[in-house]
Design the sequence.
């Protein structure tokens, strides 16, 4: 889509010259000779950038007219890039407007290569910011829809990676299809299983969780399928297994990759027929159970090495949900950390930045432990970076260092509400600052 610029200047020759320059560089350009005409065009059409003069009345050099026009354009569109065309007499006013958020200023007569370089850079920045704003708007719409329509079981999230995963999880929740949740330890696989159950037809029935990785290999079968008295040494009485306890509901098998081959065979049979025999029994039992499973292991590699059945893998993996590591969903870090805080304590900006920079090898579980420890060690209500106990070498240089609402509010408070100065302190343009204020619902 071709970019479009509006030039507001009382000199028709200036408008003609700029129109020709931009035409030769594949940029559409309109012109207005008065502030009123320019504002009328801005109200009726969409522009990507404005170039405005600072004076419009004959023998006027104060720049007051340019300042007034700038403020009116800002009121119409706070994010629109504005380049000021100045003469030496109104340079001071132009510099003041730059501090207030104008994108650039150029002295007359301008150098074409410098003007084009500034225009192209600002157009690209504006395009990226508009695309980012649109993505954020779409993300908010998707998030609101998800939160309104489904029970998310108290799950805290903000990252679009989690949003996409939850949309799939809630979509498949109503079916009886087996779901395999894959991802690293501590990333929250069990919580995803809870979301699936909460939105399934079995939400009011039994929900049995089994951590196969925490059970001795020789006891897993008895745990899952039950055991009769005398089946083996120590089995002094009969007891039902987890599948029977989950009959009519859902069973969640965590760390499924640790299940021994004999247990895998029985599990495959349950998935295929709903039938099994307790350990030490020849009596066949039948259950109706929805199976959810999870693993941090590479099951395809386990199949290749002969320790996991390929037919079971495809039975379990009718639908796979790949849960990203916490470092790969960085927008979740601060919301989760604040969720884990108890009482009235809060994070300093230094602590927030340290949390964002950490690579979280232990994922959400590590984050929860770090926040809990910091809450105990902090000497005041403000948790500092030093209270977190994070190792400085465990940082993720490629992680998204996105800012939180608290970062934005702190910066605004530190600069007495001056958006331009607050944006500069955060390394943002004024336009980008407004985007984030809108994102977090902070009043302009």
Sequence:
């Amino acid at each position: 889509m071709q970019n479009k610029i509006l030039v507001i200047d009382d000199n028709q020759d200036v408008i003609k010259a700029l129109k020709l320059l931009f035409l030769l560089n594949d940029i559409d350009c309109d012109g207005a000779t008065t502030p009123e005409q320019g504002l009328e065009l801005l109200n009726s059409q969409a522009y990507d950038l404005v170039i405005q003069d600072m004076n419009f009345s004959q023998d006027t050099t104060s720049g007051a007219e340019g300042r007034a026009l700038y403020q009116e354009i800002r009121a119409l569109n706070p994010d629109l890039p504005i380049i000021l065309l100045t003469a030496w007499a109104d340079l001071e006013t132009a510099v003041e407007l730059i501090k207030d958020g104008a994108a650039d200023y150029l002295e007359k007569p301008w150098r074409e290569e410098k003007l084009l370089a500034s225009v192209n850079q600002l157009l690209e920045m504006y395009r990226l910011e508009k695309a980012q704003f649109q993505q954020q708007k779409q993300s908010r719409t998707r998030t609101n829809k998800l939160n309104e329509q489904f029970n998310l079981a108290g799950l805290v999230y903000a990252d679009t990676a989690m949003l996409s995963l939850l949309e799939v999880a809630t979509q498949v929740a109503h079916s009886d299809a087996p779901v395999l949740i894959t991802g690293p330890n501590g990333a929250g696989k069990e919580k995803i299983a809870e979301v699936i159950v909460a939105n399934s037809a079995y939400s009011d029935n039994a929900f049995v969780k089994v951590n196969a990785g925490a059970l001795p290999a020789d006891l897993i079968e008895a745990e899952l399928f039950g055991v009769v008295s005398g089946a083996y040494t120590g089995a002094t009485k009969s007891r039902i297994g987890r599948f029977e306890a989950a009959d009519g509901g859902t069973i969640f098998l965590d760390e499924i990759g640790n299940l021994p081959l004999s247990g895998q065979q029985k599990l495959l049979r349950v998935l295929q027929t709903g039938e099994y025999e307790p350990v030490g029994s020849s009596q066949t039992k039948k259950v109706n159970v929805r199976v959810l499973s999870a693993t941090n292991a590479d099951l395809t590699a386990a199949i290749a090495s002969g320790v996991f059945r390929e037919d079971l893998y495809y039975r379990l993996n009718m639908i796979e949900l790949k849960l990203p590591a916490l470092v790969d969903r960085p927008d979740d870090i601060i919301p989760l950390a604040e969720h884990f805080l108890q009482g009235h304590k809060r994070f300093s900006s230094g602590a927030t930045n340290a949390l964002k920079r950490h690579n979280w090898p232990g994922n959400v579980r590590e984050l929860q432990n770090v926040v809990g420890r910091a809450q105990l060690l902090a000497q005041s209500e403000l948790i500092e970076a030093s209270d977190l106990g994070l190792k400085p070498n465990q940082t993720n240089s490629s992680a998204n260092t996105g800012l939180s609402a608290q970062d934005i509010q702190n910066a605004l408070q530190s600069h007495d509400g001056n958006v331009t100065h607050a944006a500069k302190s955060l390394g943002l343009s004024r336009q980008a600052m407004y985007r984030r204020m809108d994102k977090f619902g902070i009043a302009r």
User: Anything to note?
Assistant: The chain has three domains: 4-130, 150-324, 330-439. The radius of gyration is 31 Å. The first strand starts at residue 4 and ends at 8.
